[in-house]
Structure formats: structure tokens, C-alpha cells
């Protein structure tokens, strides 16, 4: 693929967990990349052949320099909803294609059907995108394997018991890199216009079993204990909005007693099996063993 023949792709959230991998996958495919960052200092983590633009989704006009001449946008919404309509309007004025990182709020599984303010925002943005003439693809990752870094890594690094609510709740964690690979493919590949892809890992595991798998990858046993709901709310105070905490608890409660929702979409699109949680944990072992 000759980069001189391809309009650049603008990646929002380019230094985030998924966006950073999207950048790498696009570069590997020979696609020119522009990265939108909220702070210019964050650009130091990006490859030198990425064109970096500073912009803010809450200030739609700040996106203009990054959008001029771009062919597609990977949209990750990390801002309040009030500027969504203006941002989508600007995207539609400049680019042919948008790939939106959404959530599986349309998936008929109890885990994804609990009241969720983020899902409502995603649905609103999807409607805005659908009203434009842009080619669009919606990417809907389920539970991300990398959530374990925020949730369980501190206790694991400290050699403590992992305490968490609803240990029996099952999900099928998906590797960020697999989500990014699908996103990148739909940004430059053909045949994905109108695609609506729910992405999961290959295996449904209880949360307690997920901790055990991480321990196996690290070569040691990690004990798991059930945490009460009140304890979880207290632990989360100040770290997450109460609406998000309530959503998580309701989703895990609804997932108890049935397999987590799993799709074959990653394999179907990429032609390779999705990474297992054990593979993900082995590749991130250092983040569970070193102080951060």
C-alpha cells in the first residue's frame, strides 16, 4: 500500500488503550496517521511518523486542522455529550468514513441491558452519525481484558487477596489489541460500510476464574474473596461516578448463572483467533508485578 495514494486517518483518543494500538495497526498497513490529542505532551508516546494535532471534542472548531484532507476518522467519545452534534457535523463535512467505538447496548444479553448512561450517549452519537452521508462502522467491544489492570493489579502487585463483588459473574474479556485490529481494518479496508460488530474474547469466565487465569500466567496462585456491594461502593467513591458503579453492579448481578456473551467476530474479520485472557495476561505480566 503506497501511503502517497491514501488520505490520512485521524485517530481520536490516540494515546488511549485502544487508540494507541489503532495507530500502530494503521501504520503497519501503510496508512498515514494523524493523531488527535488533548495535550501536546501526550504525543511523546506516539511514533515519530504520526502527524499530531492538538484538539478538544468540547471545542469542535479545534478539530478543523486535523480534519482537513483526512479520509476517515476513528472516533472515541471521551467528552460530555453537549458538543456531540457539532463534532459529528464537522466530521461529515470533511471525511468519507467514520468508525465509532461504541458499546454492545443493542446486544440481547442481560449483562449489556442494564441502565447505563454511557450506552445512552453512545446510542445518541450513533443516531447523529446515521443521519449523515458518511460511510460508517460501529465497533462494540464487550468487557475489556485491560480492565483487570485498574481493578485487580494493585492488589496483585501488593501480594494481597483480590477482593471483588460478584465473583461468579461471567464475561468474555476481549484484548484491546484485537479491538484495535478490527477498528484499523474497517478504517482502511473495503466492505465494512454499515458494519455493526460486537467484539468479545473467545472464552466466558467468571471474574474469580479470570483472577485465577492471571495468576497462572504470572506463575503464582492469587486468592480471590467476595466483596460486599457496600464495600465496592465505598472503594469506588471518588474513582467513578455512582451511576457507573450502579451500572457495573447491576450488570454483574445479571450475568450470574449464565455464560458470558461471546462472538466469533474477531476471528471472522481478521482470520485469526482472538487472544485469550491468558495470552493477554502473559503479555502484560510486568504491569502486575512492577510498581507504577
Shape, principal axes of CA atoms: globular
The biggest sheet, with number of strands, parallel, antiparallel or mixed sense and barrel status, is: 7 strands, parallel
Q: According to CATH, what is the topology of the domain at 3-144 and 174-200 and 261-274?
A: Rossmann fold
End-to-end separation:
39 Å
Total of DSSP H or I helical runs spanning 4+ residues: 13
Coarse structural class: alpha/beta
Instruction: Kindly provide the radius of gyration, computed on alpha-carbon positions and rounded to a whole number of angstroms.
Output: 19 Å
Average pLDDT works out at 94
Q: Helix coverage percent of residues?
A: 25-40%
CATH architecture tag of the domain at 3-144 and 174-200 and 261-274: 3-Layer(aba) Sandwich
SSE run: EHEEHEHEHEHHEEHEEHEHHHHH
CATH class of the domain at 3-144 and 174-200 and 261-274: Alpha Beta
CATH superfamily caption of the domain at 3-144 and 174-200 and 261-274: NAD(P)-binding Rossmann-like Domain
Which stretches of 5+ consecutive residues score pLDDT under 50? none
Proportion of strand residues: 5-15%
Amino acid at each position: 500500500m503506497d501511503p502517497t495514494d491514501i488520505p490520512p486517518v485521524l485517530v481520536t483518543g490516540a494515546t488511549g488503550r485502544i487508540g494507541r494500538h489503532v495507530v500502530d495497526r494503521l501504520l503497519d498497513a501503510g496508512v498515514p496517521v494523524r493523531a488527535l490529542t488533548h495535550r501536546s505532551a501526550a504525543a511523546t508516546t506516539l511514533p515519530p511518523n504520526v502527524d499530531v494535532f492538538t484538539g478538544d471534542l468540547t471545542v469542535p472548531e479545534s478539530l478543523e486542522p486535523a480534519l482537513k484532507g483526512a479520509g476517515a476518522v476513528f472516533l472515541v467519545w471521551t467528552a460530555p455529550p453537549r458538543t456531540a452534534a457539532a463534532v459529528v457535523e464537522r466530521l461529515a463535512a470533511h471525511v468519507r468514513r467514520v468508525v465509532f467505538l461504541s458499546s454492545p447496548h443493542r446486544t440481547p444479553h442481560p449483562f449489556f441491558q442494564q441502565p447505563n448512561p454511557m450506552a445512552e450517549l453512545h446510542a445518541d452519537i450513533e443516531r447523529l452519525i446515521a443521519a449523515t452521508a458518511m460511510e460508517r462502522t460501529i465497533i462494540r467491544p464487550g468487557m475489556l481484558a485491560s480492565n483487570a489492570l485498574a481493578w485487580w493489579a494493585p492488589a496483585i502487585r501488593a501480594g494481597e487477596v483480590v477482593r471483588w463483588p460478584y465473583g461468579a459473574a461471567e464475561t468474555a474479556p476481549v484484548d484491546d489489541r484485537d479491538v484495535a485490529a478490527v477498528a484499523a481494518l474497517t478504517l482502511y479496508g473495503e466492505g465494512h460500510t454499515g458494519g455493526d460488530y460486537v467484539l468479545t474474547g473467545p472464552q466466558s469466565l467468571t471474574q474469580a476464574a479470570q483472577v485465577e487465569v492471571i495468576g497462572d500466567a504470572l506463575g503464582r496462585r492469587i486468592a480471590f474473596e467476595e466483596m460486599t456491594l457496600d464495600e465496592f461502593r465505598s472503594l469506588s467513591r471518588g474513582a467513578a461516578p455512582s451511576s457507573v458503579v450502579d451500572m457495573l453492579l447491576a450488570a454483574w448481578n445479571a450475568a450470574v448463572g449464565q455464560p458470558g456473551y461471546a462472538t466469533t467476530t474477531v476471528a471472522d474479520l481478521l482470520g485469526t483467533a482472538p487472544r485469550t485472557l491468558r495470552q493477554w495476561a502473559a503479555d502484560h505480566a510486568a504491569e502486575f508485578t512492577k510498581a507504577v
